[in-house]
Structures are given as C-alpha cells and as structure tokens.
Amino acid sequence: MKDLLRLLGLYRRHVGWILLSMLVSLVATLANVGLMAISGWFITAMAAAGLTGIAMNYFTPAAIIRTLAILRTGGRYIDRVVGHEATLRLLADTRAHLFARMVPLAPAALDDLRSGDLLARLKADIDRLELTFLRLLSPLIVALLTLAAVGLLLFLYDGLLSAGVLAVLAGCGLLAPALAAVAAAGPGRALTARSADLRRLVVDDLSGLMPLIAVGAFAGHRDRLVGAMASLVQAERRLARRAAFGQALGRLSGDLALIVALAVGVPLVAASRMEGPDLAMAALLSLSAAEVFMGLPAAFLGVSSTLASARRLFAILDRKPPVIEPANPRPLPEGRDLRLDGVTLHYPGGLRPALDGVSLDIPFGSRVALVGKSGAGKSSVAALLARLRDPDLGEIRLGGVPLADLALADVRRTVGVVPQRPHLFTLTLEENLRLGRPSATAEELAAAIEAAGLADFVARLPQGLATPVGVAGATLSGGEARRVAIARALLPDPDILVLDEPGEGLDPETEAAVLERVLDRMAGRTVILITHARAALHRMDRVVKLDEGRIAANRAASEV
Ligand SMILES: Nc1ncnc2c1ncn2[C@@H]1O[C@H](COP(=O)(O)OP(=O)(O)OP(=O)(O)O)[C@@H](O)[C@H]1O
C-alpha cells in the first residue's frame, strides 16, 4: 500500500492531464451505455406504438441517440489521445527524474548493479508504470462512477432491480478479477524478476561475448540464457491462467446482469409497475454497463508486477549519493596544495579498510608516484581526490579548503583523473576527446593528442579524428584507448592530474615516451602517478608506498 501511494505520488505533477483524461473517458463510457439503453427503449416504444396505433414523438429520442453516438465515437478517440498524452508525459518525466537521480550516484553507489539491470529499470520498469494509470486507475474510477450512475437510474424504477444488477456487475466485474489478481501476485512478481534476469543476462553476455567464446564458456552461458527464457515463459503461463479466470468472469458479468434485470423486471412489467420499453432500456443498460470491466482483469493482474517494478525504481531513488554537493560551496582557493589528513575509507562489505589513516602532503607542482601491491589502496586515493567518494574519517584539503566544501564541478575541473579502466563512448575519436572540454579549439585538441602520444596514430587513420571507436572503444587497442583517455584528461588543463596505471597496454618505450610528454605538458603543476613500473619512478619527485591501506614509505624518488 505504501508503495502504491508513493507510486501515485509520482502522478502529482500531471494531475490536470489525468483528470481531463478521466473526464473524457467517463463521458465516452456513459455515452455508450446511454446509447444502448435509449436505443433499446426507443425500438421497443416504437414497436409498441406501431402495435397500438398510438402516435409518438420520435424526433427527440432520435436526436438524443445521434448525439450519444457522436459523443461515444468522438469521446473514444479523444480518450485515447488524452490518456496516452497523460501517460507518456508521466513516463518521460519519471525516466528523466530517475536518470537525474542516478547521475550523482554513479559510479560509486551503482557499483553493485550491472548495466543491463540499470537499463531494465530505466526502460522496462518505467514502461510498466503505464499500466497503473492508463489500464488500472482511470478505468477503475470510470467503472465505479458508471456503476453508480447505472445503479441510480435503475433505483428510480425499483430498488431490487438496482441492487440485483449492481451485485452481479460488481461481483463478476470487480470482485472476481480482484481475487484472481491476488492469486496471481506471486507469478506477477516472478514475471518482473524473470524478465529483469533475462535482460541482465543478454546485456552482460553480449558485452562479454569475446572472453566467453575465448575460454569456451559460451555453451554454458547459452544454456543459462535458454533456461532464463524458459522460466520467463513459465511465469507468463502461470499469470495467463489466472488472467483467463478473471477475464472469463468479467465477460460473463454483462450477460448475468441482463438475466437478473429481466428476472426482476418482467414481474414488474406484469404487475404494471414498469413499462415494457423501460424494461428493454434497463436490460440493455445492464448488459452494456459491463463494458467498463473489460480491461480491468488484466489491469488487476498487472498490479503486482507494476508494484515490483515501482519498488525497483524506489530502490534506486532511495540510494544515498556517495558525495553530497555542498549547499553553499566555498570559492575555489588560490592554492593547489593537497593535504590528506588521517584519511580512512571502508567499502561496504570490505574486511579491512581500503585506506587506513592516510596522511600525506602533496605540494602544488610536485610529482608523486603512488606504488604498492595490488589492492594496497592506490586507486582509492584517486577516487577520493576526484571526490567520487568521501572518506569515512579524516579530510582532504585543496589549498587549505576541505574538498567537501567545494563545488563538485570545481574539484573535478582542478583534479583530472585518468582511471585505471577508462571508458570510451560509442562515438568518434574527436567526440570522445571533446568530452574533456567541448569548447576546445582544433589547436588545443591537437596539443592534447600530441601530449598523449597519439598524433602518429591519428595521422594514420583514413578518417582521422572522425573515426568511430566502436562500442566502448572496441576498435582501438588497449594502449590506444588509454592514450585517448589521457588526451581527454589533459584537454581541460587540470592543475592536478592523477594517472592510474597509464602504462597498462603500452610497450615500455611508448610508456616512457607518453609519460615524458605528459610531464612536460604538466610542468609546474601536480602529477600523481599510480604505477607498478619501477622505470617511471626516476621521473618523479617522491615515491609513496601504500601497504594494506597504510603509508609504508614516503621517500624522495632519488632514494628509491
Ligand atoms: N568498489 C569497491 N567495492 C568494494 N571494495 C573495493 C572497491 N574498490 C576497491 N575495493 C577494495 O579496496 C581495496 C583497495 O583497492 P584499490 O583499487 O584502491 O587498490 P589498488 O592499490 O589500486 O590495486 P591495483 O593495483 O590492483 O589497482 C582492495 O582490497 C579492493 O578489493
């Protein structure tokens, strides 16, 4: 219930469209029910008039019938247009809202989710919310109002007639599908989970297809995929069985209501308490009112899977961003000295802290190598310096001001990071580079490419900078991709550059040449180099060794 209310809360901003859509839908439905009822009355009254030879005014009912027919047809058209407008606005809004909330979570607070899972939440889960309004909420309210109108009209003739018809309509049209939906809650949840599983598997396996084939594990993954599809079909089948039960009773509701109307109405006519044409009207009114229940069984069944989707969305919306933008950021200080003071960082589930009381001074303009065994905490320092995470304890200061007090954009403009696993987008080489600084001139772009040691490579490409790099840079070698990432980080001219193992994928000569150029370009500014390559150390001022999250040594490079 809490989730349903929260879901409805998402609709608040579109309440005008929602009310308009419901109003149009109600008018179209009442016009349809009224059309059937008045037509029944009119035909019977005309037949009776013909038999008895009494003249009757047929202009007024004929005009009413024509008006209702126009209202019904036009209303249904407008109902579709307005209903979809309301729903699509809601979906677009929710998708944008969720994406905007994901951005500050990335990457640290989304580490545990696979990209296929995130895609499923952004796409399929939000699409499923459509069911709540278009197929459930609006039809349910319209059905209840129509029932009330029908019940009131029949009550004017006879209380029992009204009660009998309402009981059948509500029992078969509303109660039975609602019970079927309760019985289907389990399969509904399973369906959402299975389709998310399948999407995750497809996206993951496709992006990892090469290694899967290479290690001969493809057959196993294909079997897993086939298994996931089979359990999806099974969940759908279970849901469909329960849906069939609710739908069958829903469809029966009109016929049963007609029988009840006749069973109660015929004695009323026989006792002259009701006119024959009025009975025809009541019978057709009862039959046609059942139309409002047609879509409800399926919508009721969709409630549990829609709520499961909503919960998956809320789970993202409720995540706490790993870093908070200060409400009133302090201005960027003049100084660029970095100071880490008792910095401690725990990853969730980590057995020991990744960083444990690290204190370190990095004056502006210095060149510091961070070394240490794999897992020592080097990349964690890089993440903290770019404020992708915040320390649990201790503080990092830039020019004497805590990083947490500065605007995130200022921090990230000042501290450029080439991560250990840089990501290239499925764009051209130039578009990937310009992400670093969209307004860069051609000369600035060329200078960054030169500094990253990419100039020869670009010159050899037939399409030059317009070359597409493929999905995640798949058409580039590991070393080329890394140099693109270096050029991208150099383009905005950061005052502090953190290079996380920039030599990976490069031969030793190229690595040395690239480092040389980067250091030249960064002359007078700070470079922090995370590396396992001893050869690079003589180009640095200090070498800081980390061991299990602590500083094990901090020496001048000449002493190493
Ligand atoms: N996102 C994460 N979630 C949980 N634990 C993490 C995460 N990132 C790193 N760790 C853990 O924190 C510790 C430090 O990791 P970090 O990546 O900083 O080491 P590193 O020195 O850069 O290692 P490498 O040289 O292999 O890149 C490791 O034990 C690692 O398993």
TrEMBL record:
The ABC transmembrane type-1 domain extends over 19-305
Task: Please name the GO terms of the biological process aspect recorded for this protein, alphabetically.
Answer: cell redox homeostasis; glutathione transmembrane transport
InterPro entries reported for this sequence = AAA+_ATPase, ABC1_TM_dom, ABC1_TM_sf, ABC_CydC/D, ABC_transporter-like_ATP-bd, ABC_transporter-like_CS, P-loop_NTPase, Type_1_exporter
Places the protein is found: Cell membrane
- Asked whether the UniProt record includes Transmembrane among its keywords, one would answer yes
Gene3D superfamilies under this entry? ABC transporter type 1, transmembrane domain, P-loop containing nucleotide triphosphate hydrolases
Q: Name one GO cellular component term.
A: plasma membrane
Which residue intervals define the domain ABC transporter in the entry?
338-560
Q: A Pfam family matched by this chain, by name?
A: ABC_tran
Give me the segments passing through the membrane.
Answer: 15-35, 41-59, 136-157, 163-185, 248-270, 282-303
Family per record: Belongs to the ABC transporter superfamily.
Q: What protein name is recorded for this chain?
A: Thiol reductant ABC exporter subunit CydC
- What is the scientific name of the source organism? Pleomorphomonas carboxyditropha
